[in-house]
Please model this.
Amino acid sequence: MQKIRKAVFPVAGLGTRFLPATKASPKEMLPVVDKPLIQYAVEEALDAGIEQMIFITSSSKRSIADHFDRNPVLEQELEQRGKFDLLDMARHTIPEGVSCIYIRQPEPLGLGHAVLCARPAVGDEPFAVILADDLIDGGEQSCLGQMVDLYAKHEASILAIQEVAEEETSKYGIIDPQTLYERVHQLRNIVEKPTPLEAPSCLAVVGRYLLTPNIFDYLEKIPKGAGGELQLTDAIARQLKDHPVLAQEFQGKRYDCGSKLGYLEATVEYALQHQNLREAFKKYLNSLLHEQKI
Model:
């Protein structure tokens, strides 16, 4: 079995739902407590054993590369002040031995096109795709780590899924599942953003994928879909006719940080888990409740 060594991060989007905050700063750099969304995504990849991070970027996303690069001026300042904990944190946003590649997406032509842009860097290997605005707290094991374990058993493309309310199916790719065993299904079909009446189930694909390299062949052949974009869902729908594609109901909690409400939920709950903040923050929230401000 080929090891999953590479992860693709499509980060070229404009983040219009968070304007004006994202006018000059990428949405992936929005902080949840004290780390940007993209760092949570990279840490999840590291937890799953990923060795190479491939960022599909645009001209407005330079701060992402800066975040994962060394900053000698900052490091010297922290060292002189004796702030060695912060110095270690600044130096190791990416551990030694892990590499970063940055590829420009020339036009915003959709998630499928962003993944296709990664082909020269991925080559003929299975790989992960992580959407940073889906923040997933997997608990003891990350969502991607769970998927890597499943890949070791089946060596097939795997999609992370969760059950959504019937009225929300039009926001997601929805699978038609054939259950293999608990929390694992084989896809019979996948439908992009169906109405509740058209949806084959309420199992929705979220921002984690493990894909076999033949997905690139399907991405090159599919026509442009909704909005004139290449849809990854369309390529997967063709792939599953020739190869098994699995879906895994991951253990953990997902925060849709592409929405303002989901982002606020993540911020509050991660603050309540933060070792240095949780007690003071809990006290603050309780005071708001006591004053009936919330």
